[in-house]
Amino acid sequence: MSAATPPPALIVNADDYGYFRCVSAGILHAATEGIVTATGVFANRPDLEADAARLRDHAAIDVGVHLNLTDGTPLTEALRSRLGQWSGRFPGKYPLAVAVLAGRVPRDDVAREWRAQIERCLACGLQPVFLNSHEHVHMLPPLFPIATALAREYGVAHIRFPTAERAARASAGGVFRNAVMKTLGVFNRSAAGLPAARFLGLQQSGRLDLTYFEEIIPRLQPGEVYELMCHPGHLDRGEVDDPRLLGYHDWEGELALLTSPAAKDLLQRSGVRLVGYRDLVVENSRLVVH
User: Fold this and answer.
1) Which of 187, 202, 204, 269 is found 20 to 30 A from 161 (Cα to Cα)?
2) What predicted TM-score, i.e. pTM, was given to this entire model?
3) Fold category of 9-289 in CATH
4) How far is the C-alpha of 24 from the C-alpha of 46, rounded, in Å?
5) pLDDT confidence bin for 79, thresholds 50/70/90
């Protein structure tokens, strides 16, 4: 790397702040003792006010809104009424995707719900600097323009753009996620607007480990900005008992990785600079570290 070439820059972005109290506590742990630099907030959770107060005490963490259509209860009455067949609650990602693509969940209802989620974060004293979504639903072609319009409306400069990744190992789920994201990326690329950080972590979503970390970090390119999606947390089985979530997530394992000396040492040896969204500007249609 020449003296004029900046090192690779990495945002380590923890999804699901506010999902469960134990997960939120683990994310704050990963930020204060580890390498997490950003987190996306679940805005439709009943304990958001208390979780937001704790997050406000950690000013070094960049905050975003983790736009949600697949877990819990909508904030808006219109969308609760629209979801009557699911008792007014969000369905899983596949029924939701089918309902959106078939027009049974209108785009205007989604826009109102997502605006309410952003407004609730603002009302709790959180100032979002990025948007992403739970289970990447904002990447559905009818919904991606809504996310970009809301970003412009609220002065949010960054939207996650998940992309497929090549890797030496991949589970069946990872292969499927890669294929879906590749297809959605083709549909949404022209509507993306501002450049996005290059995306990492899709293949190991929910189970980020040192082997994956050692595979990707040395390959990061000088001058590029990357976002690593992660899901650290503490696990309290008195709070989390859903077998599906327990099967998907290794919260404690990711927390151990992201606070480990091994991860910090690998970043240092690879010349990778940890940054937040607040450190980025756009120059010549590229993200660079200011």
Assistant:
1) 269
2) 0.91
3) TIM Barrel (3.20.20)
4) 13
5) very high
